[in-house]
Amino acid sequence: MSVMNSQLNAYRQTRVKTASQGKLVIMLYDEAIKQLGYAAELIGGQSKQLDQIHNALVKSQDIVTELMAGLDFEKGGDIAKNLFSLYMYFNEKIKEGNMKKLSDPLIEVKGLMMDLREAWASILPQVGDMNVANNSGVNIAG
Length: 142
Hints:
- The protein is an all-alpha fold.
- Helices cover 78% and strands 0% of the residues.
- Helix 2 (21-44) packs antiparallel against helix 5.
């Protein structure tokens, strides 16, 4: 690993470890959107790079699972329940895209995640920085 890559990874890890919960959710969405787009692009390409497609989709599913685990059903009420159902749907569509090597389910999930990400980004300034996040179980730093 080059010095530049090492420094970049250190920066990413620090950014993740010091992010507020709201910012961390946005970072999770950003990474899932990136991985879904990458996998959909590879599926639509000439040469199917199955290992890279699979890895990108597993990362996406890990992120969705982390988002599910972070839901607070006591404080979140119906919103948390609805998000949980939506995240379950995301995982099913990602699994479908991975097993059948279809880009359409991935593009659908990516679009929905982009909408959710924008919703989070729009409310974050209104609620301020929530508590500093604990270490996440998903490595989005790289």
